[in-house]
Amino acid sequence: MERLVVSLLVVSTAVKAMMCPKRCMCQNLSPSFTILCTKTGLLFVPPSIDRRTAELRLMDNFITTLRRKDFANMTNLIHLTLSRNTISQIMPYAFFDLKGLHALHLDSNRLTRIDEDHFKGLINLRHLILSNNQLSSISPGSLDDFIETIEDLDLSYNNLVHVPWETVAKLSNVNTISLDHNLIEAVPEGIFSNLHKLARLDMTSNKLKKIPPDPLFSRIPVYTKSKGSPLSSLVLSFGGNPLHCNCELVWLRRLTREDDLETCASPPELMGKYFWSIKEEEFVCEPPMITHRTPKLAATEGQSISLKCKAVGDPDPYVRWIAPDGKLVSNTSRTISYENGTLDILLASLGDKGTFTCIASNAAGESTAPVELLVSPYANLANSTNCEKDAEPGASDILISAKSSFPNETKAPQDKGVVVTELTSSSALIQWPSQHHLPGMRMYQIQYNSSSDDILVYRMIPASSKSFFLADLVAGREYDLCVLAVYDDGLTALTATRTVGCVRFTTQEEYKRCRSLHAQFLGGTMIIVIGGIIVASVLVFIFILLLKYKVYNHHAKSKAPTVTHGCSQTNGAAAKLPDPRESLQQGQTGSEGDCTVAFGTMETLP
Question: How confident is the model at residue 303 (pLDDT cuts 50, 70, 90)?
Fold first, then answer.
């Protein structure tokens, strides 16, 4: 009896452990467990899913987000289907516990991008289906965890313009790659060279104008209906692209396919024609022809100048420049060569004088054209009689190791390196690109000196700076300057330096030392004239003051009142003063102190 109770408890516990989520179907086919939740109206992954499930199908629902807890601890899950939902967001590490997952179906959802942490933990994934989404970006590191196990990668029917080709080139076990119905414009040459197990590559309906040859494509069968195709071969589909049928696609035409319907979009004479019906001799290219150039240019030392060279051809030619010394012009802080054929020389030097050669080349050949550049020395001031002449410049003693890497250093077209701005006779603003990509970046070091002395000046700049203002420079002198990045070498724990760039510049002339006699004469004359006008104005002003003083003094004396014995003061109108003679007759005695002062009108006593 006790054994029966115990067995019943075990059975009930097992049944509860394998209870199906509501509206789902569960199949217990030992040793695996399958859950089917198709078209059940789910808004999220059911939390009651058994963690021992081996196959989980949640297609045709309304799930919008995949959370970290949805598949936690499901280490036995082998097959996960989330097709035809409305998934637009995958939380980081949502699949981290799915170490045994082989197939992940996320097709027909609303994903717009794949980040590096979306597929972390899928170390045994073999089939990844992401078709029919809205993907426009895929991080190169998002496929790293299963880069050696993936066999089937489906990215079709998305909005991809760029594909992480470097990651695709490492998929050593991949059998099928589907990139059809995207917006891909170019495929790098040789990207499929190491994909020896690749059996099908679909690039249908993209924006490809050409497909570069690849060693892997030698496995594409050359066959007809009578011969059939070999068993071990590569199937390449590329129809629906705006193919430019020139000599660059001759290799593809020689495969002699008869079962596809590819057509040409250009050139005009082949537009709309069936690709496989065009003869090989019609796939032609046009050699480059230089259509525009300036045969002769003149510049002053230190001035910026642009050399232009335009060329046409089929395919579009690539333009390069050869300097007068016979070396290929590379991108440095002083010269920038653009893809459109323009060469910018930011600071012309006397060494640039000579003939530059423009070379335009494509698959059909090349064409050259000379451009002569005249560089005149820096002009001194004219009409000078007392100009001081500086000593002839000598060789600069800037560090040879820093300068040697500068002329041949190749940089991106947009990277201008060290640049000198706000140049005056005694100062200059030095600017350089940030070097934060260097590990252990500590500071910058600036080294500069004049070519007329042997003093090398150092400046230590904080790592956060991108510019430095140099002062106390000598006027009219040429300087060599280099910027070096000081950082910690991660391998040896020692301090290392790397050259950011070097530049040569000349300060402006000091105009105060160079004055012509004509300018001195005019300056002295103007000073004398202005001084005379000021002195004359002061004398006239003093004379007017003296004249006014004399007139006022004379007028005051003629109107002065005479007071004999007394005066009257009232606070209002003037009162009539008594006659002193009447006072005497009345027996009143006056004194000298009996005087009344009037604040009003003063009248003269009779």
Answer: confident
Q: What angle do CA 157, 64, 139 make, to 5 degrees?
A: 50
CB under 8 Å to 130, separation ≥6 — which residues? 106, 107, 111, 114, 154, 155, 158
Bond into 315 cis (ω within 30): yes
User: For 489-605, where are the E strands, in sequence order?
Assistant: 495-506
- Higher-pLDDT residue of 364 and 174 is 174
Q: What is the pLDDT of residues 15-64, one digit of tens each?
A: 444 568 888 888 877 667 889 999 999 999 998 888 889 999 999 999 99
Q: Whole-angstrom Cα distance, residue 475 to residue 495?
A: 36
Lowest mean pLDDT segment, chosen from 28-37, 313-322, 354-363, 486-495: 486-495
Secondary structure of 118-137 as H, E, C letters = CCCCCCCCCEEECCCCCCCE
Contact 487, 495 (CB under 8 A): yes
Best-predicted range by mean pLDDT (108-112, 260-264, 372-376): 108-112
C-alpha closest to that of 176 among 195, 196, 198, 146: 198
For residue 239, pLDDT over 50 is answered with: yes
Radius of gyration from C-alpha coordinates of the chain: 48
Q: Is the pLDDT of residue 391 over 50?
A: no
The closest of 325, 330, 452, 304 to 391, measured between CA atoms, is 452
* Between 57 and 297, the higher pLDDT residue: 57
For the beta carbon of residue 413, count every other beta carbon within 10 angstroms.
Answer: 11
User: Per the structure block, which two tokens stand in for 193?
Assistant: 């060279």
Q: How many of the other CB atoms lie within 10 Å of CB of 599?
A: 11
CB 47 within 8 A of CB 37: no
pLDDT band for position 143 (cuts 50, 70, 90): very high
Spell out the residues 6+ positions from residue 44 whose beta carbon is closer than 8 angstroms to its own. Answer: 63, 64, 65, 67, 70
* Residue 581 reports pLDDT greater than 50: no
Q: What is the end-to-end Cα distance of the chain in Å, rounded?
A: 163
Q: Yes or no: say if 87 and 110 are a contact pair by the CB < 8 Å rule.
A: yes
Kindly give the pairing relationship between strand 32-36 and strand 65-66: unpaired
Cis? peptide before 31, omega within 30° of 0: yes
396: nearest Cα among 508, 506, 510 = 506
Mean pLDDT of 103-126: 94
Q: Cα angle at 398 between 392 and 401, to 5 degrees?
A: 140
What is the b/e burial string over 246-282, where b = at least 16 CB atoms within 10 angstroms of the residue's CB?
A: bbbbbbbbeeebeeeebbbeeeeebeeeebbebeeeb
Residue 458 has pLDDT above 80, yes or no: no
Cβ of 400: how many Cβ atoms within 10 Å?
9
How many CB atoms within 10 Å of residue 218? 10
In 3D, which of 213, 210, 240, 235 has the Cα closest to residue 223?
235
Three-class SS of residue 400? helix
Asked if 179 and 203 touch (Cβ cutoff 8 Å), the reply is yes
